Amino acid sequence: MTELVVGAIEAILMVLIGLHLSIFLLYFERKGSALIQDRVGANRAAITGFGRKLGMPNLGIVNTLVADPLKLFTKEDFVPEGADHFLHGLAPFLALFPVLVTFVVIPFGDTITIAGQTFNLQAANLNAAALYLLATIGIGVYGVALGGWASNNRWALLGGIRATAQMISYEIAMGLAIVAVIMTYGTLDLQEMVRSQGGVWFGFLPRWGLFVQPLAFILLLTAGVAESKRVPFDLPEGESELILGYMVEYSGGKQAAFMFTDFAEQALTAMLLVTFFLGGWQVPWLYRDGFHLPGGHIIAVAPLLVSILGIVSFLVKVVVLCAFLGLVRWTLPRFRYDQLMRLGWKGLVPLGLANVLVTAFIVVATGGAH
Fold first, then answer.
1. Which domain holds residue 156?
2. What distance in Å separates the CA atoms of residue 359 and residue 222, rounded to the nearest whole number?
């Protein structure tokens, strides 16, 4: 019973982390992009007198986190004439739900001991979590396709078709990158992959997957951005061509669900990159008994503090990667559609296949997985 309650708490916690990261990305999308492009950005709405009393500048927080969401969720829920009402309402949540349930298999810490009981800091401890990832990520395409088709709008349909082709194309490259990682570590368990990245090489270099599979890191990073349909891969919702693509006939909470899906996918991409390539919750030179610094120096750390530092390390890495993905969005121009498809099928897929073949050769030649 205790394990069930703890598992439920961890699942809720991971979903909340994903949602809060999405809110952070929403704020960074508006204020961060303004700073990059030398604009003021959101700064008008404020709690009267609050900022002046504390001597704080208005950073657009009230705009982004209170005023604009409140305005969006209170708008009329419009369904166009001739649309399929059931599928029109189902599509946004069919796109969002697979992303949320994927968060629960991401390990956000090692283990923690409370009142003599040890708990694994992973909501769903699946021994085939990597396969679960590929399955749930692939389901999200149905929500986008249905949203475009059910709207009874040619621009929405075209956006849905673009999104479906793009997501399926880049899922192949993403799958090949994950397959290479699985072959490297010899397990489908994400927690075991993170534990394999503990320790150091040459006395100072962390044993992170980035140094073992750099090409897989680039493939997953690129495919993850394409999966989240963000610039430079935002062709499915290119405003200058399709008005708003598959979301054009959505308003209110349904539109918010679609928009939230993009941010949640971006947060999920950051979590996967951290888990597979950046050591997950591992802190460089930190072991269960404390820090083992280069040169033989040891700093003792309490086991509970070691577990907390692991959680903090995971969150910091994810936030930094989320900020990096935001910088990419507001730095690179949009691809043409033919360039986007060519990059996926003639660029990333062949590289992914070559990486899998080279990884298989090295694993066999060295007598086993990393």
1. 2-41+75-366
2. 20
